[in-house]
Each structure stands twice: as C-alpha cells, then as structure tokens.
Amino acid sequence: MRLMQLDRQNVAFPSPESALREPNGLLAIGGDLRPERLLAAYQRGIFPWFTPGDVILWWSPDPRAVLYPAELHISRSMHKFLRRNPFQVTLNQAFADVVAGCAQQRAEGTWIGEDVQQAYIQLHQLGYAHSIEVWLDGELVGGLYGLAQGSLFCGESMFSRVSNASKTALILFTHHFVTHGGELFDCQVLNDHTASLGAREISRRDYLRHLLDYQKQRLSPYCWQPKMLYPYIPT
C-alpha cells in the first residue's frame, strides 16, 4: 500500500481505513498546516504528527485511545489532593502559552515546532482550538490543548511543571465538558499517563462512528468562553 502525497492545492484526505498497519496509522504525507486542511483532517479522524523540519505526516491509528468521561479514574491520592487543590484553573485564557509549554516539556524532544504552534494558534483564534490552564501563585504550571468536534474533544498535548498539574487540568476540564454536553475525549495514542486516568483503546471503526455522531451535536457557545474553572465563580 502506497502513502498518499497530499496536494497543496487540495485539502482532501484518503479514507482513514487505508492507513498503514506499520507504522500504525500512517495515512498520508505532505501538504501544509493551514486551518482548512487541519479542520478537514480532524473532521475525518486524522491528525498531524512529525519531527520539526521533516515532511508533515498524517495519522489515523487503529486502535484509538479515548477517554469516556464516565470512566474517568481519580485515584484515592488524587481525590485527597483535589480536596486541598492549590491551583487556579482557567479555560481559554493563555492558549499560546499552553502550546509553548507543551512544546518545551519533552525531554525526548518535541513534534510541536514553531509552525505547529502557529497553526493551532490560528485555529484557536478561529474558535476551534481550546486550552485549559493551571496556575500556581500566578504562574502557569500546567495545562492541555486540543480541538473541539461537536461533543467530542480531540486532545493534542498536555504539560506539567509541578506534580498533578496536568491531571488536574484533565479532570476539571472533563467535568466542565460533560456539564455542557461533552461525550468523549480523544487521546489519540494510549500512554501510561492517560491510561492511569481511565483512557482505553477502541477500534478505529468505533472511533470514526463516534466522531460522525458527536460532530452533529453542538455545545452551548458558553462552554468555550474564557472563564475560571476552579475555584468556581458563579456568573
């Protein structure tokens, strides 16, 4: 099976079902990161992931890692931590800083180069991408960002500069998301961190079925308005 070389003038993608088995999920190469192409990718369950400076690689892995909100696992120690939560948690108040934090917090290197950062900042400015920020004494110490697809949220990356910051971001965001009608958190590829919070793998076919269903659901615009998530301040 040959990989599709994307045309810079055409944002169409091949079927995710045609992705390679090895490396798992590699679907296409090339193209660009302009908003139209990124949105077309996410609408079909595809995301970019590549080394800065190299050709853009597009993926749709099978299986796919997801977190069903009802299966969110909060350990006993995390419950104890949250009862004395020292953080302030906000939504959509420092998107560019969160993306930069995710790019920096990788000892093994990062795929979030300057071009990727600018591409997602554009999506944020257009109202598609969102961030959750975790603050300690006024300093950004953790967070996550991703892209909304109706009632499905495609998580892209998270970072933590102090213990439990990224877990707090995911837990409080999940509560907020569900409160406003959110159904599923896409984790892309399972890792120890997301697995410890309850994420699990489902088939690509099931993921694409969820995506098609949840894209049709529209959350209240209030869901994404910049706000304080914790401590909660009634409006």
TrEMBL record:
Keyword Magnesium attached: no
Location in the cell: Cytoplasm
Residues spanning the membrane: none
Keywords of this entry: Acyltransferase, Cytoplasm, Transferase
GO molecular function: leucyl-tRNA--protein transferase activity
EC number: 2.3.2.6
Catalytic activity: L-phenylalanyl-tRNA(Phe) + an N-terminal L-alpha-aminoacyl-[protein] = an N-terminal L-phenylalanyl-L-alpha-aminoacyl-[protein] + tRNA(Phe); N-terminal L-lysyl-[protein] + L-leucyl-tRNA(Leu) = N-terminal L-leucyl-L-lysyl-[protein] + tRNA(Leu) + H(+); N-terminal L-arginyl-[protein] + L-leucyl-tRNA(Leu) = N-terminal L-leucyl-L-arginyl-[protein] + tRNA(Leu) + H(+)
A cellular-component GO term for this protein: cytoplasm
Gene3D superfamilies per the UniProt record, alphabetical: Leucyl/phenylalanyl-tRNA-protein transferase, C-terminal domain (3.40.630.70), Leucyl/phenylalanyl-tRNA-protein transferase, N-terminal domain (3.30.70.3550)
Gene Ontology biological process terms from the UniProt entry: protein catabolic process
PANTHER family linked: LEUCYL/PHENYLALANYL-TRNA--PROTEIN TRANSFERASE, LEUCYL_PHENYLALANYL-TRNA--PROTEIN TRANSFERASE
Protein's job: Functions in the N-end rule pathway of protein degradation where it conjugates Leu, Phe and, less efficiently, Met from aminoacyl-tRNAs to the N-termini of proteins containing an N-terminal arginine or lysine.
Protein family according to the UniProt entry: Belongs to the L/F-transferase family.
Name of the protein described by the UniProt record: Leucyl/phenylalanyl-tRNA--protein transferase
Protein's organism: Enterobacillus tribolii
